[in-house]
Inverse folding.
């Protein structure tokens, strides 16, 4: 795996070796953020010389790792350009991030991406929505295959009991590093263990959101909806919109900062509903797929890649409850009505919806099913 992750030991990479090439300290990104040891710069703001240097440095690193049967390049740009420059057979995974934030409306980048994709063995997109975005931005592309991102359905799975889930969540929270005054927004809030223990001391209807705390993620829509719903909420994540969200959050809302999978696998099993309220197009709905695998019924805004998640859930839900998989984009009233209806269902019925959501995740978004779909076009060739 060739990447710029400075701490690969923190992740389960299945035994893959990691190589971090020297890229000269400059990292092309689609949304500005902070990266350890690197200067982030928007791809569209790179000069020709900076782009060429970044591609050459990465392609050289790939060539040093031969022999290889195939290069799996992430992102149309600069990933496909690196794959092409390596001289090896390559496939490309296209994402909404580069297409929407850097390439759309930039004919130079769109043309560069189109030329590179023409030489790829295959192009993968995570949803029909991204297939349409890809074609809209770069024009018609051959050999495109829709394969959603995968979820570890063994890690995200229903719990045997509420007490067990809570005990394990608190155990993980107690293992968090200290974060005095929450100085690091990328670490869990300090004192989460005590706050979570107090929050879950009573068993009340609970709604969970986890993801970035940005305006585009629509968390404000959820908080508005909750004002007319008899439920409390746990809001997980970090971002520059957090302070504003805390000001408008109704009573009974707990902000935790970002949590890792080791926390989320237990938190989700304590959630009656997991809401994905994004108001901006999403390539897929990984949050919803993970919640579904954990048996927490997702309620998603019905648009873009999230609509495809809703359709997968609806295929498993009984007809009378299919409308409870989604709500109208940006409509706090519709979200409040759907939340109230979901939470008013008998406990057994809600458990049945959770089981149906997990069936959808296992059948459509598990790593096993996704891996088979990724390999199929390559093996045929």
């Amino acid at each position: 795996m060739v990447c710029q992750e400075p701490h690969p030991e923190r992740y389960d990479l299945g035994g893959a070796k990691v190589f971090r090439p020297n890229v000269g300290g400059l990292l092309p990104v689609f949304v500005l953020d902070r990266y350890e040891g690197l200067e982030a710069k928007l791809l569209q703001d790179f000069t020709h010389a900076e782009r060429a240097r970044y591609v050459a440095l990465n392609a050289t690193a790939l060539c040093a790792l031969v022999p290889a049967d195939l290069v799996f390049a992430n992102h149309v740009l600069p990933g496909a350009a690196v794959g092409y420059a390596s001289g090896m057979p390559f496939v490309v995974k296209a994402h909404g991030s580069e297409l929407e934030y850097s390439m759309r409306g930039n004919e130079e980048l769109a043309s560069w991406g189109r030329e590179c994709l023409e030489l790829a063995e295959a192009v993968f997109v995570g949803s029909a929505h991204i297939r349409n975005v890809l074609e809209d931005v770069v024009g018609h592309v051959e050999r495109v295959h829709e394969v959603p991102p995968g979820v570890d359905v063994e890690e995200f799975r229903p719990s045997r009991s509420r007490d067990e889930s809570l005990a394990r969540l608190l155990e993980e929270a107690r293992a968090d590093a200290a974060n005095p005054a929450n100085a690091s927004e990328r670490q869990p809030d300090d004192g989460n263990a005590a706050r979570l223990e107090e929050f879950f001391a009573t068993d009340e209807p609970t709604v969970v959101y986890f993801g970035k705390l940005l305006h585009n993620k629509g968390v404000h829509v959820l908080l508005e909806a909750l004002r007319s719903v008899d439920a409390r909420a746990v809001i997980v994540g970090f971002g520059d919109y957090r302070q504003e969200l805390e000001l408008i959050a109704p009573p009974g809302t707990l902000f935790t900062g970002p949590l890792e999978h080791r926390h989320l696998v237990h938190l989700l099993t304590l959630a009656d509903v997991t809401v994905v309220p994004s108001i901006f197009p999403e390539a897929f709905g990984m949050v919803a797929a993970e919640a579904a695998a954990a048996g927490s019924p997702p309620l998603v805004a019905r648009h873009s890649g999230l609509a495809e998640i809703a359709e997968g859930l609806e295929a498993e839900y009984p007809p009378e409850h299919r409308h409870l998989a989604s709500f109208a984009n940006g409509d706090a009233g519709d979200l409040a009505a759907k939340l109230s209806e979901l939470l008013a269902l008998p406990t057994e019925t809600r458990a049945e919806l959770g089981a149906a959501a997990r069936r959808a995740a296992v059948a459509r978004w598990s790593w096993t099913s996704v891996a088979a779909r990724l390999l199929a076009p390559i093996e045929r060739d």
